[in-house]
Protein: Bifunctional NAD(P)H-hydrate repair enzyme
Organism: Syntrophomonas wolfei subsp. wolfei
Amino acid sequence: MVKILTAREMKEIDSKATSEYGIPSLILMENAGIRTVEVIEDLLESSQSKKVVVLAGKGNNGGDGLVVARHLMNAGIHVDVFLLAGSDEMTPDSYTNYQILSRMSRNIFPLQVEEGLDRLMLALLSCDLIVDAIYGIGFQGQMNDFDSQIVRMVNWSKAVVVAVDIPSGVEADSGRVHGEAIRASHTVSFALPKIGLLLEPGKDYVGTLSVADISIPAPLLQDKNLKTSLISEAMVMYWLGPRHPESHKGTFGHALLIGASPGLSGAVIMAAGAALKSGAGLVTAAVPESLLGVVDAGWMEIMSSPLAESKQGTIALEALPLIEGLLGRASACAIGPGMSRFPEAPAILHSVLKKAGIPILIDADGLNALAEDLNILKDHQVPVVLTPHPGEMARLTGKNIEEIQSNRIAVAREFAQQWGVTLVLKGNKTLIASATGEIFLNITGNPGMATAGSGDVLCGLIVGLMAQGLRPLDASIAGVYLHGLAGDRAAGIKGQRGLLAGDILNSLPDIMQQFER
Ligand SMILES: NC(=O)C1=CN([C@@H]2O[C@H](COP(=O)(O)OP(=O)(O)OC[C@H]3O[C@@H](n4cnc5c(N)ncnc54)[C@H](O)[C@@H]3O)[C@@H](O)[C@H]2O)[C@@H](O)CC1
Ligand SMILES: [K+]
């Protein structure tokens, strides 16, 4: 499993490497510098003159930059070092490296002097490569005007920019950028990727990302207390192997979908299609009776069940006994797609959660019903998966969308832990929070997938995988990953603008097939 780290987790790892294993922090800094130099030397191979500018800040990131400068000088490369802070502000390890470098070279220039920026400008004009060691993972918030001016000069330059650990100005935990930040062509991050390198807007500043071993002892990087992971192909492969030759349709479960209302029957059809294509053995759509024909026409392969309906054509409370019977025959259920909002919806949802003996996924209008009364969740005995987009998450939490989007991991984790559910927070880089506080970040998918019905496909995919016996958390992780891959494949054929949810659905079998090897 690929772990990704917050700044605090990385700092704890660094300090344990020193306190528990006795690796001096200067060695970690030396390794960080050497590994960055390896990347730089590859990049400089084709350039004739080989001139480098190193920008070093006051923290340990600046110290890494000073190590880089020393090794490049030793390799015969012309290096100009510019210091954003006085030596009295440097951390102890940075100061040690500053002293060593001062004995080796005169090309170390303070920037906070009158001619500082002019000299930098000249150096930037003639260099091939710039090393950004201004700020690392210790940075938060916004740079001051002076630093911002330097960042703008770097971003304006035509030289290749290599960021040490993280582009300066990007927040390591969130990827947020509040003012200026270095636009790197390459970023060399240490030990494990930091979360902010993978999330927009930070991700857009990273360029090509490499992750370098700086000799942190492996057990520290595999610690089970590291709670954030990147979803990988290997994880999904593990759950979706080849099928046993003796299997029959009963082996692959029975997915039940409850939803639809006049004008919104397509949502259940999309979800049913995804459940079928996920490999579920049987799929039943339970919909208001007047919509039965429409939904039946959607797929020949599904079964359907007519539910008693209100005057408005939405599911009526009288449908509950039939729903209870259906729940008894299914192996997983999704409630909500196209269900619409109506006064009885919370009571229907509540009853489903109380009666069910199978995992329940709540999506779309099911989530809106839940937002009316979150206490409904108190009664659940079975695993519950929620799949909100940021707007639905806002209704569930009472927070506004901006609060949610700027704090996706923390908001999702808190909710999932508080209510004991698996929470799939959709959006750019959908993430899954487990009831135990783990986070799984997905990086498949593209903006073309922000289209009507895309969420219904995801809902069907996850419930279909749950019906086949995947744990709800695993089904959510696999579903989100496969949904993104199918969307990427569909975008490759149709482009992002013309992409429809049906195209995601049509790409699913090819994607699923890759996992049957
Ligand atoms: N043992 C370690 O801790 C190691 C650290 N390493 C490097 O050290 C970096 C982390 O070092 P530091 O924790 O010293 O942090 P930084 O080098 O990122 O420096 C942050 C400094 O800027 C200040 N700061 C934060 N936000 C600011 C803002 N908006 N405006 C102005 N100043 C701001 C902080 O208070 C701190 O003094 C890593 O990114 C990595 O490059 C590596 O050398 C490997 C070993
Ligand atoms: K940096």
Q: What stands out?
A: DSSP finds 20 helices and 18 strands in the chain. The mean pLDDT is 96. The longest strand covers residues 282-288. The two ends are 20 Å apart (CA to CA).
